[in-house]
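Q: Protein A?
A:
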Amino acid sequence: MKKIRTVLGDIEKDELGFTYSHEHLWTNPPHSQKDRDLELTDYEASVSELWRFKHAGGQALVDATTLDYGRDASKLKRMSEETGVHVVATSGFNKHIYFPNWVTTLTIEEITQKLIRDVQNGMDGTTSKAGFLKSGAWNQQIHPLEEKVTRAVARAQQETGAPIWLHTEAGTMGLELLDILEEEGVDLTKVGVGHSDRNADPYYHLKLAERGAYVQFDGTSKIKYYPDSTRVELIQNMINHGFSQQLLISADMGRQVYLEAYGGGPGFRYILKKFIPRLLDEGISQSTIDTIFIENPANWLAQF
């Protein structure tokens, strides 16, 4: 049986448990990003938020902080050791506005080898290995550098078997990113398309799922975009069309204002304490909820 690669080592698929499939524990965007609410660099606040997740019933968390966004594997390892929560980290890139200069100068093959080392040897000078690869695109377009790193991610996936997660700005360009991965020979059943609910288009979601990819709704609780009633409808659309086994749900609370331990809210407890009870009230069965939060993340991540 294939295993899941966490920052503390590989585990069996059935060890993962209840999982948030896209969150952030430690981030430090480049200083070109003036909005420092996106910076999560208070260890005690971050680990306390992870404890709250655990006490609410959480068992595993996928941290999507990339190497161009302030990833720190030593902090993730320490938090996992302290709380007992499985943490899965990534190697790869967010979007071109954050890319380091070396992305421009290195070849696709050189970038590919960097990603492979993170997956096979360890990240940021530690022995903690990346459990998935990440790439992304800009709003309504794929920047040439984003295409470059997406091809590098695809090639690293072929070499390592690591699953892939895609950042889609405002939920756009998901199908186009899948086209690039498919051109490079990636099995799209190993790919998750993030932020898909930001583009609240049921037809679009079905087209992603028909390609074999996991469709991730990770804006739960973010009323500034639209109410959770819309997300419930999008979830029901996926379920009603037979794609419950390709659905991932999280909240992407990568801001201080979202996290209770940083003085914000609603925090990591929201899905477990409020959103899942609502899904049950809206007629979604507990078995389907278990599929979405336990089986699907494990199936997506178990590639090693």
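Q: Protein B?
A:
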Amino acid sequence: MATGPVLEIACDESGSDGENLIGGNTDVFAHAGVRMDAAEAHACLREMRDRIRSPALEYKANHLLREKHRPVLEWFLGPSGPLPPDARVHLTDKAFFVVRRVADVLLGDRAEAAPLYREGRGALPAAQWRAFLESANDLVRTRNRDAGPAPVDAFYRTLDALPGTALATRLRHTRPRAEAFRARVLDEPPSVPELDPLIPSLARTIAHFGRDGHPVAVVHDRQNTLTADRVRRLETILPPPSRLASLTLVESRSDPRVQLADFLAGVARKIASDALGDRADTALTGLLRPHVDPHSLWADERSRSLLLSRATESGGSRTP
């Protein structure tokens, strides 16, 4: 257990679909953290209610995202709004996350992920790119143990339909690695899934607030996936000098700070998704940009330039 002065932060996420990253409802996962006291957060929520004037018992990000409440959203994200300057949101492009995991499993090199993603997204027809991502997602999932070797066959059939592409050329000869990976999935006890972005995103949030070596206590919206095994995994991937002091799960309605993290994660996910889909709102991306983790898992160069204000290594992240 970490000792010394502890920084307490409140966290929440938006866009979680577990390991079902391609077949889910969202294309972006966002994880947010804020550091402020409960009284400040409560005052913020009270002002937000005064501005929105909805009878809802619990406000969510979709209240802010309604067009009629655009001024409230701009206030929330803007320099005169309630968010502390160090409020942070880590963004994950789910498609890139899948390609990154494929590069890790089949090539042993995550640096290969960004060029593969950009070639596939930029050169393939949308239907072929989607088919590749779906088969790749199934290949590297660990919660589909009953699928046996079928994901391997499906993945390489998809590659066979992409002759002459960088994806096919680079990955076609990796089948032995894929078969060995699926054999491990079948033979070994279930472990912490490597394809769920929650743990690496939370690790980056802790790393941001604990960058000066202060241990970080996390108050997080209740998540069934934040099991004891996953918390132990989280502690092993935290980049030094960041340290986890404690992790407490609460209902978001019980802590106004967690509600603010929920707002930030929800609006960031929608703004980032619009940018990824060529629907960028440049005013909102500009307001969000100071709060976006520069190590977000984001490889799309066009939307990256809108969302991330600082340059990082190619492919977007040093996230574990």
